[in-house]
Amino acid sequence: MPRSPHGGRHELGQNFLTHRPTLARITALVDRTSGPILELGCGDGALTRRLAGLGRPLTAIDIDEHRVRRLRAALPGVRVEFGDATRHPLDAAVVVGNIPFHVTTPILRRLLSRKEWREAVLLTQWEVARKRAGVGGGTMMTAQSAPWFAFSLEGRVPAWGFSPQPSVDGGVLTITRRASPLVPVSDRRGYEAFVRAMFTGRGATLPAVLAAATRAPMSRARRAVMAAGATSCRWPRDLRPEHWAALWREVSRG
Q1: Domain check: are 131 and 248 in the same one?
Q2: Does the keyword S-adenosyl-L-methionine apply (predicted)?
């Protein structure tokens, strides 16, 4: 195949999914959703062909124009476009894709800042999927998004299930926009700053971290943690979305 001016497979971060159980799993997860589908990084079309079988409007993009041309000819019923996942409009109800590992975080941040889509099914590095789903403790990015999105870890993909084989396993992550946000959208900027202050703050206990992050008296911080039902949590990473929302309400009242 001719070389793309944008680089070869490694330069483009393309580790093509060949693991059939995962291809079937992602297709089944997408099948549970409704509405038009946007596939990011379609590559040679292993997943695209399965998604096309769902019989829904499907747009597939890739940064390699040679693969776009070949897949466009092979799947005339699919809208296949040359496009960069870090810039292309995320304007479909469902976003799905095998995300290039080296741009996972920028794509996730961009996805979580857009309003058009409802559900996403993404294949990322295993540790990214695990952390975003809150397995083993939450992260700042997940906590900042949790009032508006629900994250779920849907499986691990062995490194040998990709070609070329990466150095790490992959993970299937689903993200669903909450029908009823836990925090008003109008509070998002303030809430995100609050979460950042909590994750970067100091303290030996959660009330101490909260007091330092909000400059509140320790007595008020203890009452806020108790009112949020978070007394069993020691660190910000231990808080569930409901805890974060409740703490924000307490902080906002203060």
Answers
A1: no
A2: yes
Over 70: is that where the pLDDT of 3 sits?
A: no
Q: What does the alpha-carbon distance between residue 126 and residue 16 come to, in Å, rounded to a whole number?
A: 15
190 in the same domain as 172: no
Whether residue 202 sits in one domain with residue 163: no
pLDDT digits (tens, 9 = 90+) for 42-80: 999 999 999 999 999 999 999 999 999 999 999 999 999
Annotated binding site: 15, 17, 41, 62, 84, 98
Q: Specify the pLDDT at position 10.
A: 42
Taking the C-alpha atoms of residue 114 and residue 28, their distance in angstroms, rounded to an integer, is: 24
Number of domains present in the structure of the chain: 2
Q: Which CATH number does the domain housing residue 225 bear? A: 1.10.8
Alpha carbons within 13 angstroms on the beta-carbon side of residue 95 total 28
Structural domain range at position 203: 185-253
pTM, rounded to two decimals: 0.90
Q: How far apart are CA 211 and CA 198, in angstroms?
A: 9
Binding residues for S-adenosyl-L-methionine: 15, 17, 41, 62, 84, 98
Strand ranges inside the chain, DSSP E: 16-17, 37-40, 58-62, 79-82, 94-98, 119-125, 149-157, 162-163, 170-177
- Residues 105, 141 share a domain: yes
Residue 95 · residue 117 · CB < 8 Å: yes
DSSP structure class, residue 52: H
Q: Mark whether 90 and 214 lie in a shared domain.
A: no
Task: Classify each residue of 188-206 as buried b or exposed e, where b means 16 or more C-beta atoms within 10 Å of its C-beta.
Answer: beebbebbebbbeeebeeb
